[in-house]
Design brief:
Blueprint: H1 2-14, H2 18-32, E1 37-44, E2 49-56, E3 67-69, H3 73-81, E4 85-87, E5 109-117, E6 120-129, H4 137-161, E7 176-177, E8 179-182, E9 185-192, H5 210-236, H6 245-253, H7 259-268, H8 273-289, H9 294-297, H10 299-314, E10 328-332, H11 337-343, E11 348-353, H12 361-369, E12 373-375, H13 382-385, E13 389-393, E14 398-401, H14 405-425, E15 442-447, E16 464-468, H15 470-474, H16 482-495, E17 501-504, H17 531-536, H18 538-552, E18 558-562, H19 568-589, E19 600-605, H20 614-618, E20 623-627, H21 628-636, H22 654-669, E21 674-677, H23 684-693, E22 697-700, H24 702-713, H25 717-729, H26 733-746
Parallel strand pairs: 9-10, 10-11, 11-12, 15-16, 15-22, 16-17, 17-18, 18-19, 19-20, 20-21, 21-22
Antiparallel strand pairs: 1-2, 1-6, 2-3, 4-5, 5-6, 7-14, 8-12, 9-13, 13-14
Helix pairs in contact: 1-2, 1-4, 5-6, 5-10, 7-8, 8-10, 11-12, 16-18, 18-19, 23-24, 23-25
Length: 757
């Protein structure tokens, strides 16, 4: 039976049309189980009923028309109980509902099982038989197993079938789901972008004409560099932050010391330029896709984009002007930074990427540009999306195709509110973040998502609260030198004269392996990472710290932050090494021009265990910074990148809020400055809670600074403390969300409820 089950599921998943897949499946189940009837009902949550979609044994005319309410009949009972129902004679059961049109009068035995995906009943799978009997344990086990496996396949089949659904019969399917990539809402017709050149289509061949091939390759690289320079200029007129540095990364990778060296070597060994490009790019993609960390894994998309750009110029293709709507939503299998650069000035309102995550450069750029984005919308026929009217909800990850008039009106209202809110919050961009009753808090930037710093001159932030130093390490074939790092850090520090820049030491290892420093572990999130790896390799740590301190010479605005601290001894060891680097450089640099400034040292609070050692840590460091994303992940034991459990990840979980309050209380008790960098700081309700808890600084994406500043300036600190007190007394995250949304409405900040979802 196992082979039969696998075959049924496989054939169901391969059918591009949902209706035919369902009809084939019920016939196969009926035959495999030697029963008289097999049927499947699918849930319509809008109408609160189940609709008979396919059957082998019931009247054919009833398919697509017969419905049973969620609380009606045996079908409804299976859905309500969310467990199998095995009845010898269904017509004598008190919940039996007679439906003449299905013609089941001769059927007595009934076995129904729910099809459930992520706690939601998608439908009911039923077998029936004329003989009045209970189905056996083996038969029940088979149907339960089949239903469990069908759940995931059915979700994907729904996604494939949504575009072909008849409007009359397909309303039970309302939306597709993806990963929120960038906040906001957009509505418009979809323009599908297909790769103009695709390395997958290249056939490998050797031509043994190295000089000619090298000339072709170098000319293509030159044109590609020009392309990237043009793209950077286009986007540079709109945004001014590190998300643009992806184009500099592309150009660096083309250097002879990086990808170019490997490609040239392949050409010299006899491969054609196209073949050499494909071999090298594919090799890099395999390396990146094997990395556990989601951010680094997403760099495979960047490498593929770069390769296709060079291939485009190798093939000397010409760009054809596209007939684009005045406003549109861009969709692609893998939306890239290059695509955004091409389309952003032509009426682009949002993006849909069938692959990728919120760590992709397309998502990063979308956030910088203020474009709503949904990533990872799987199992959708891309070509069928073209020219379809769609709504992109970047807050929830919902994608609506061909929405009805009611839904369109609802989202048009939301879009108008978003536009008005964006204009309104700009009024406070250059004002201090201070409450109506005089409580001040500093708003800073999270930066370093690319090789430079992420800073918009008009964001309203007063410094960098988190500069991620690991990203430049990634785009290389070896560890960077002290001189290279010094230049990077000087660039960042000089951009914020007289304002604090907090640089986090290298945070790699375990789940964030570098291509040239691979680490394979069974449980990387609890493995060799962060400060653990740099303390085990002091030569790496000392080099980086020396570069930071050197870069700070003449600036004096550097703070050094240590990631993933889990013990006091780690802090002692790190400070010892920092002191070593400082005294070495003091001797080297300050013989003539005075004293070398010593940076303040702080730690990231991400590991829950350190909450119970804050007193000891307070005696050793100058500040604390909470990494709320990882702290939430570790407190709740939830991998937020795992779609199956991501819904359990919630920074408003009472345990998380109480932990954050404890940290704030302990920091205040020991007079240690406290900041928070994480998604919670970017959320209006979250910012109010953190303000009330006593956090001194909040660090966030530039796009959110003005909004959070507006919220802070339009609330009383005393009211915020009352809101916090009640929120801490609630028992579930759902209760907290509901309460906070209500409070935002009451204090006149209801327009931010959507922005905080």
């Amino acid at each position: 039976m196992l082979t039969t089950l696998r075959r049924i599921v496989l054939e169901f998943s391969q059918d591009p049309k949902l209706q035919s897949a369902l009809l084939r499946m019920v016939s196969q189940v009926k035959k495999a189980m030697n029963t008289d009837c097999c049927s499947v009902y699918l849930a319509d949550y809008e109408k609160q009923n189940f609709i008979l979609m396919a059957s082998d044994g019931l009247a054919e005319d009833s398919l697509g028309h017969t419905t049973i309410g969620f609380s009606e009949g045996l079908v409804g009972l299976v859905g309500q109980r969310e467990e199998p129902l095995n009845i010898a004679n269904a017509r004598y059961h008190p919940h039996f509902k007679h439906i003449p049109e299905v013609q089941e009068d001769e059927l007595n035995a009934f076995l129904g099982t729910p099809i459930i995906h992520r706690r939601k009943v998608l439908g009911i799978l039923i077998i029936q038989q004329k003989e009045a009997r209970n189905f056996t344990e083996n038969e029940e086990a088979f149907l339960v197993t089949l239903s469990a496996q069908l759940a995931m396949v059915l979700v994907n089949a729904e996604a494939r079938g949504i575009l072909g659904q008849n409007q009359d019969n397909g309303k039970w399917l309302k939306q597709l789901k993806g990963v929120p990539g960038a906040p906001g809402v957009a509505m418009g017709n979809i323009v599908v972008s297909q790769p103009k050149a695709d390395l997958d289509s290249v056939s490998l061949q050797k031509v043994y004409a190295s000089a000619e091939q090298l000339k072709r390759y170098n000319e293509a690289v030159s044109r590609t560099r020009t392309d990237f320079a043009d793209m950077s200029v286009k986007l540079g007129n709109i945004i001014s932050d590190a998300s643009l540095d992806i184009f500099e990364v592309y150009k660096q990778l083309l250097d002879t010391a990086n990808l170019g060296k490997d490609i040239t070597s392949k050409i010299n060994s006899g491969w054609s330029a196209e073949s050499a490009l494909k071999l090298v790019i594919d090799g890099y993609i395999v390396k990146f896709e094997s990395i556990e960390d989601s951010y680094l894994r997403e760099r495979a998309s960047d490498i593929r984009d770069l390769g296709n750009r060079v291939l485009f110029n190798l093939q000397q293709q010409t760009r054809e002007d596209e007939a684009l709507p005045q406003e549109f939503i861009l969709a692609a299998q893998d939306v890239t930074a290059s695509m955004l650069a091409e389309y952003q000035h032509l009426g682009l309102k949002g993006i849909i990427s069938l692959s990728g995550s919120n760590n992709s450069h397309a998502a990063i750029l979308s956030r910088a540009l203020g474009l709503p984005a949904i990533m990872g919308v799987e199992s959708v026929p891309l070509a069928q999306l073209h020219q379809q009217l769609a709504i992109v909800d970047g807050y929830s990850g919902d994608l609506f195709i061909a929405p009805d008039e009611t839904l369109k009106r609802e989202y048009q209202h939301l879009i108008a509110e978003e536009d008005a809110l964006t204009v309104k919050v700009q009024q406070v961009v250059d004002l201090p973040a201070i409450t109506q009753d005089g409580k001040a808090i500093e708003l800073l930037l999270n930066a370093g998502l690319s090789t430079g710093f992420e800073h918009s001159r008009h964001s309203g932030a007063v410094g960098i609260g988190l500069y991620r130093t690991e990203i430049p390490f990634m785009n290389r074939s070896c560890f960077p030198s002290e001189q290279e790092q010094t230049l990077w850090y000087q660039h960042v520090l000089s951009a914020f004269p007289k304002q604090t820049v907090t640089m986090r030491t290298l945070d790699v290892g375990g789940d964030k392996s570098l291509p040239y420093f691979p680490i394979v572990e069974e449980n990387p999130f609890l493995g060799w990472r962060g400060i653990r790896i740099t303390l085990d390799h002091p030569e790496i740590f000392l080099l980086q710290v020396r570069a930071m301190i050197k870069a700070n010479h003449g600036q004096n605005n550097l703070e050094i932050m240590l990631p993933m601290i889990s013990s006091v001894s780690e802090v002692d060891d790190a400070i010892r090494l920092i002191n070593q680097a400082y005294y070495e450089l003091s001797s080297e640099l300050c013989q003539q021009d005075g004293k070398l400034p010593r940076p303040r040292i702080g730690i990231m609070i991400e590991v829950p265990g350190v909450i119970f050692q804050l007193q000891e840590l307070a005696r050793r460091v100058d500040f604390f910074s909470v990494g709320s994303n990882d702290l939430t992940q570790y407190l709740l034991a939830v991998d937020r990148n795992n779609a199956r459990v991501a819904s359990l990840y919630d920074a408003y979980h009472p345990a998380v809020l109480r932990a954050l309050k404890t940290i704030a209380d302990e920091s205040g008790k020991y007079m240690v400055p406290l900041s928070l960098c994480g998604e919670l700081a970017s959320d209006p309700a979250g910012a109010i809670l953190l303000l009330a808890m006593g956090y001194d600084k909040l660090s966030m994406n530039p796009h959110n600074v003005a909004r959070i500043k507006w919220v802070i300036r339009h609330i009383d600190f005393q009211r915020a403390k009352v809101i916090l007190a009640h929120a801490l007394s609630l028992e579930t995250a759902k209760q907290v969300h509901g309460y906070l949304n209500g409070q935002l409405e009451q204090v006149g900040l209801g327009g931010f409820v959507r922005a905080g979802m």
